[in-house]
Structures are given as C-alpha cells and as structure tokens.
Amino acid sequence: MLDPILLRRDLQTVVDRLKSRGVDFDTERFNDLESRRKAVQTETESLQARRNALAKQIGQLKSRGEDASAVMAESQAIPDRLRQLEDDLAGVQQQLNDLLMSVPNLPHESVPHGASSDDNVEVRRWLPGAAGPDGNPPGLGFEPRDHVAVGEPLGLDFDTAAKLSGARFTFMRGPIARLHRALAQYMLDLQTTEHGYTECYTPYIVNSSTLYGTGQLPKFKDDMFAVSKGGDDDAKLDEHGNAYAREDQYLISTSEITLTSVVRDSIVAATDLPIRLTAHTPCFRSEAGSGGRDTRGMIRQHQFDKVEMVQIVAPDHSYAALEEMARHAEQVLQGLGLPYRVMLLCTGDMGFGAAKTYDLEVWLPAQNTWREISSVSNCETFQARRMQARFRNAQNKPEFVHTLNGSGLAVGRTLVAVLENYQQADGSVVVPEVLRPYMGGLAVLQP
C-alpha cells in the first residue's frame, strides 16, 4: 500500500508515477475523502478543546457557588458527538484504505518507462556455449520438438490429468516425475547451502487477511482458488459465545505469500535482518482471463511447483538484495546449463506490488524464443505497510521493512526447458550433470 503521507504531501508526483504504469489515480475521490477526514479531525480537536474549557469553567462556577447546570449540560452532550465523530473517522479511513488497497506500487526511478513487455530492457544474457549468428543459442542440429512431444513418451500424461482434474493440469509418472522432484531438490539445496536461505515448510491454504497483506487481494481475487472446509457453518462462536463470520480461505498462488507473512504484525530487531527464506510448494492459479494463451503443455498451469526466495531487509539494503537475488536465481540456470537472459521490466509490465523487477527468461528451442522462468522483485514498503511489518532502526524507532521475492525457480517451466534443450534426435533426454545425483546416477531418459 502506498504511503498516505506521501499522497497528502506530493499528490501530483504520485499521480505522475502511477500514470507511467498506465494507472489513473482517482484524485477526485482521494481529495474528497481527505477533505472529510480533515473536517472530522478538526471538529474532534475543537470539541476536545471545548470539553476541557468547559470542565475548567464548571470548576470555577462551582468554586464560587454559582449555577453550572447550563455549562454542564453542554459538556455532557460532547461525548456523544465525539463518539459519532470517531465512527465517522473510522468510516472515512476505511474508504481511504479500500481506495489505496487497489492502487499498485510506485516504480523505482531506475525502471524504464513503457507500456508493455515490448519496452522491457535486456540487462545481460548467459549462454553455455557460443552464440549463433543472431546472438541466440545455436540450433540443436535437428528439428526440435516441444516439451509435450518430447515428454509424453517419457511419462508426461496430460490425458490422465484432464480426466482427474480438467484442463491445465499435469500427471507425471516414472523417471520424468523423479526429474521434476530432482529439480526442486537441487534448487532448494543451492539456495540453502550456497546462498544462506532457511528452508521452510508452509501451509498451502491461507486466510484472506494474509492475502490482503501481500497484495493478492483484493486485486487478484478472480485468479485465486477459494476453498471451503466441509462441515463448517457460516458463523463460528468465540470464547464468549458470540457469533462471528468465518474468514475466507484460499490456496496459495505462490509461497511468497506465506514466507513474507511471517513478519506480519510484528517488529523485528535490526540484528535479525536480513531474513532469507525459501520453500518448495505447489502453487494454484485460476488465471482468469488468460484463456487461449499457452494452453498446450506445462507453460501455463492451474497447479505448478515453485521454489520461492524471500528476503526481508532494512530499506538501505533492499536494492543490493534485489541484485543478489537475481544472481541466486541465475545460478540455478547456470548450474543446469540452460541459456537465459535477464530483463529489466518497464513500468507497464511490472507486477502489482513491485517497485522494480527483473525477469529471467530461458531459451526454448521449439518456440525459438525466450520465456519467463523467474521473476525477482523489490516491493520496498508496499507489502510491509499492508502487513504492519517493521523493525527497530538505529534510533530504536519502528520503521517498515522492505520485502523482496523471487522464483528460484518455477519447477515446471524448468522441466520444460530441460526437456527442450537436452532433447536428442532419438527422442531421449540427457539429464543435466548436477541432477544426476538426485536421479540415482541416471544420465539419460529413454522413451
């Protein structure tokens, strides 16, 4: 969530920065709510001062033996009005909060302006061998097949998945299922042993408060899978027997949600920062409105696995941490020998909560193009402000932390990249060397 103080102090700058993201901020509504807030607070302060003055006047009248009934009547009416004003202020603050909850983060000054992915900027690329004449990886020496054609003879089974669950799910069996698991284990081992992340196991179901904190709600409600618990009534009873509504629950779309939320509603010691966390989880996304895009195979699934990296840091370290996390994701691809490039996203292509984002794009020979396999973002205080996640600074005062997240990597898409880049003309797939210890020494998958 944006800083309300910044909006009050420099609204036009905020409006201009949001416009670079293609967002028109509702200044009329914001100004109206701010005007109402100020009016309520002004009347509240005036009444509080009047109440104090009347209390003093009552005391003086009584000390002189004079009639204080009229002054007391005025004074006794003030608390009711103050309670009404308190309710009015809470209502205005809630409307302001609702408005700001739907507004994306401000882009960092280093983010290039642009409207779409066409305006993203390539930062660097890495190839395991010499580049072809167009600067991309050279051909395989035969006509490459896509991961579906390569994978189905090896155990990828989309028909069974469709029978069990519907479209955009994957069933795997045999060595290819083990290869999928090996990829996740390799990623976790690299992030924990080499890069200092603490491995976590997290819930796959979270409440709506958690999703509001990290920014998935209310913006992306249609992209979430809501869940219900069998036998639950709509209402619960607290310890006093009072009924309250059950909070909505959802399957996680990324473990960024659970890992980042460990600092929700807390103040951590500065000495505890940076916090580095990683987890391997399934991720669930309904991807409303994405019909027709990448529906073949594993590129865009309702359920997929991901190894997530999260860092929670002091503000003065967050952009160094962003560069560090991008390198941590890159090392996975380098270890696997997969060609990739790093793209700096423009203002119009960044995610809702990001101030700056790098996408890692892996080369897919069958598509003859680069495809996203990791996204690494600095959210600055955007999530922390929503979560009330703070640390004690050098002056021992609470200050919002900066939160960062990144894929290290999306396991399914990495499997796609391995199948396509390591395919052989006979239909077999060479297992990358770093994965062979996880595969019991198996070096080649045979159809």
Structural class: alpha+beta
**Count of DSSP strands:** 20
Which consecutive residue ranges, at least 5 long each, have pLDDT under 50?
none
Rg: 28 Å
- For the termini, the CA-CA separation is 51 Å
Read across the widest sheet, the strand sequence of neighbours is 1-13-14-15-18-12-11-4
- How many strands, which pairing sense, and closed or not: the largest β-sheet? 8 strands, mixed
- The domain tally reads 2
Overall morphology: elongated
Fraction of helical residues: 25-40%
Number of helices: 12
Pfam families: Seryl_tRNA_N, tRNA-synt_2b
Main location: cytoplasm
Domain Aminoacyl-transfer RNA synthetases class-II family profile: 178-432
Protein name: Serine--tRNA ligase
Question: Could you characterize the architecture of this molecule?
Answer:
- This is Serine--tRNA ligase.
- It is found in: Cytoplasm.
- Pathway: Aminoacyl-tRNA biosynthesis; selenocysteinyl-tRNA(Sec) biosynthesis; L-seryl-tRNA(Sec) from L-serine and tRNA(Sec): step 1/1.
- The protein folds into two domains: 26-102, Serine-tRNA synthetase, tRNA binding domain (Helix Hairpins); 117-445, Bira Bifunctional Protein, Domain 2 (BirA Bifunctional Protein, domain 2, 2-Layer Sandwich).
- The chain is elongated.
- The relative contact order is 0.14.
- The strands form six sheets. The protein has an eight-stranded mixed beta sheet. Strands 5-9-6 form a three-stranded antiparallel beta sheet.
- The model has no long low-confidence stretch (mean pLDDT 94).
- Helix 3 (27-63) packs antiparallel against helix 4.
- The chain has twelve helices and 20 strands.
- By secondary structure, it is of the alpha+beta class.
- A hairpin with a 4-residue loop joins strand 14 and strand 15.
